[in-house]
Amino acid sequence: RGSGGKAVDYARIEREVGAATAGIERTAHAGRLSRLDIDEPKIVVGRVPHTRVGRYAQTYYTLAGAVAVERSVYRPDDVRNGKVVDTVSLRAGVVADGWLPQTARAMAHHVQRSTPREAEDSAAEVGRLPYSRSSFDRVTHAVGELYSERNHEIEDALITTYEAPAEARSVSVGLDRVATPMIEPRPRPSGRPRANAPKRPITVAWRMAWVATVTLHDQHGDARHTIRYGAMPSDGATSLLEGVAGDVQELLRQHPRLKVALLSDGAHDLVELLAVNVGRRLECEVTQVVDFWHLVEKLAAAAPLLDGDPKARMARWRMRLLNVEYAAIDILHELRTSDREEVQVGEARPVHEAITYLANHHSRMNYAKVRAAGLPIGSGNVEATCKTLVQVRMKRAGSRWNESTGCHVLQLRALAVSDRWSEAMELTLRPLRKSVRVAA
């Protein structure tokens, strides 16, 4: 094809070479898998004896496509009509109904980033994982269920082996929430149902999912690495923060000199949840901070209603907040004596709202002291996590979730965006691999 100096459709050649190589790969897998088969009257899996009940072909799914392997199947002796097993799947750690472990985790990684339909299209374009969108969906939830069953154990193992950045001097815990479209059952209307009415009517309701972060900071309070966590609305923030507090305790055990900060916006429940479920669990000094930028937004809305240049006033307020201890109290006094508290802009009262915000949280707004200690003053890490963890993936047009499917995708995505995917998948799938021996 390349002779004569003509232009060549090399994309076609790439596809042809890829297809041929995939055929070689499938043949290699078929040979390797067949060697994992044991054809004996009895075997022992763990301590449970099994008896052979037949020999049948099974389809296994690889990165390059499906292969068929004939193998013996066994049934446990101590369970009447128990589930049959085969030594190929047991020894290889196959996921669900024939998915090889690397194939399953690759498919799950695709779906935590995008929809199963997009995962199918992307896989077809690169010539790997030639499976349908329903397969991508089914395998992802199989992997997510395996992780969910042992997530506390896996997270404990992950944080124990976690290597904090060498420049880390402090650790912050952030908490926030973000609206998520959830499927909920809807009561049937009274009377005879209309033609083609759904058997199980549903509605889509927006509920608050929870997002938390553990961030390591350098001596200037700049973030170096963030571990991200998520929980569905029904799970609540308490159990999420219990796991987060455990991770922080492990980090402090490994690095006792780390300073600790708790960060959130000024919502009372967020402040209280962090104080109770994290601050009180740690046996060290904890600094709780209300996000600097949320305060700046409140003050920026109030400044135009006061006498003088609002830009100059905001610049002065920001400099004082960042460099003068207890500046929040001085600004609170300035707002109270401005005689503008009841002035309305539309339906809002910006000065009143700023006064209320400062009055409720001024003890957590000593930003000059916090900065001098090398601690962060902004909750940007958890705000960004709301976007990357939930909004980008779970609030796409037409998306809606139930608790189990949403939990699987949310937890898998949290692992991926925290750079913990490979270690977590190894811990998740390793228990599927089982040794088998021939019975005496």
Q: What layout of secondary structure does this protein have?
A:
Elements: H1 10-35, E1 42-45, E2 48-62, E3 65-76, E4 85-86, H2 87-92, H3 101-113, H4 116-126, H5 133-149, H6 151-160, E5 170-185, E6 202-217, E7 223-231, H7 236-254, E8 259-264, H8 268-277, E9 286-290, H9 292-302, H10 310-323, H11 327-336, H12 350-361, H13 367-372, H14 380-394, H15 403-417, H16 421-429, E10 436-438
Parallel strand pairs: 5-8, 8-9
Antiparallel strand pairs: 1-2, 1-10, 2-3, 3-4, 5-6, 6-7
Helix pairs in contact: 3-5, 3-15, 4-5, 5-15, 6-7, 6-16, 9-12, 11-12, 14-15
Fold and architecture overview:
This protein is of the alpha+beta class and about 450 residues long. The protein is about 45% helix and about 20% strand. The protein has a 5-stranded antiparallel sheet with strand order 4-3-2-1-10. Strands 7-6-5-8-9 form a 5-stranded mixed sheet, sandwiched between helices. β6 (about 200-215) and β7 form a beta hairpin. α3 (about 100-115) packs across α5, α3 crosses α15 (about 405-415) and α11 (about 325-335) runs antiparallel to α12 (about 350-360).
Write a brief structural summary:
This protein has 440 residues and is of the alpha+beta class.
Feature tags:
10 strands, alpha+beta, five-stranded antiparallel β-sheet, five-stranded mixed β-sheet, 46% helix, 16 helices, 440 residues
